[in-house]
Amino acid sequence: MTMIDQSKPVMVTGATGYVAGWLVKQLLEAGLTVHAAVRNPSKTEKIAHLEQIAAASKGSIKYFKADLLKDGSYAEAMEGCELVYHTASPFTSNFEDAQRDLVDPAVLGTKNVLEQADKTASVKRVVLTSSCASIYTDASEVKDTPKGMLTEDIWNTTASLEYQPYSYSKTMAERAAWEINEKQSRWDLVVINPCLVMGPPLNPKATTSESFNLLKQLGDGTLKTGVPNVGIGLVDVRDVANAHFQAGFRPEAEGRHITCGHNTNFLALAQALQPKYGKDYPVPKNALPKWLVVLAGPLLDKSLDRKFLRNNVNHVWRADNSKSREKLGVTYRPMQETMEDSFAALIEAGVF
Fold it and tell me: Which domains does the chain have, with CATH numbers?
């Protein structure tokens, strides 16, 4: 049972990020002092949205320059904090070297932050942003799980540097976090494991993030003939942020938490957009045959691996979110609300 003193500052790594932005907003509105660890505090365009939120909130924000891969760079930001949120990690499918561009920043960055927590006497709890990717690689694995669904007890054992390196990076980073935590007893570790995150960004420029690539294709005509019916989980960014907030301050919070609002698939995401946007945008109405997706997918997009397509198209994705609901008190928005708000953000940003 870890009690966090809300009069003390709270540190957030990657504070300008997609999920982190909504978390910082909730912290500021609750009247807390946020120590925002960012790569370059002098880039005013990167922090402008946080400044606006802080100006309208009871809390306050202070910025600290920090580098995931530089030892000791979080020391100043963490000083005096009882609660640390580590949200910063690479999320991209555009990389040249998986080890250098994905695994090293994720693992070494996590070690850097948590080892600093070891050195900072005030720290009582670290909340880590992990992913459902540290639980599974392909939707085809779900049917072979003990309960026929993903749970917090399961670890990803199938991803590698060669196959689904992003999932591998998240798995290695979370394992490293637990290893560091288990070597001491002063601070506890609480982990949030979101599935695919969508929802409106607080930073208008965040629509360039990886989370929005699929959404763009659903609205720009790329997939107008049909979608590859990939089984996935979906969660709203605002609900993920709330899960983080609750994980920080609920004394009884412990362990991993699957943070997923909906067990779904790509076709259902498109169908959720149809009522409001189907008439004005080429939102797909049908799923493509699996044989066609597996055959033609890699020819249309080099990032689409035939093994991935075989293991994810037309496979049912299911995850158990009961722990996040019961232990963190998280409630999940309707999928249509998430999809419509996300699409509206892209329209406002001039993507379509």
Answer: 10-348 (3.40.50.720)
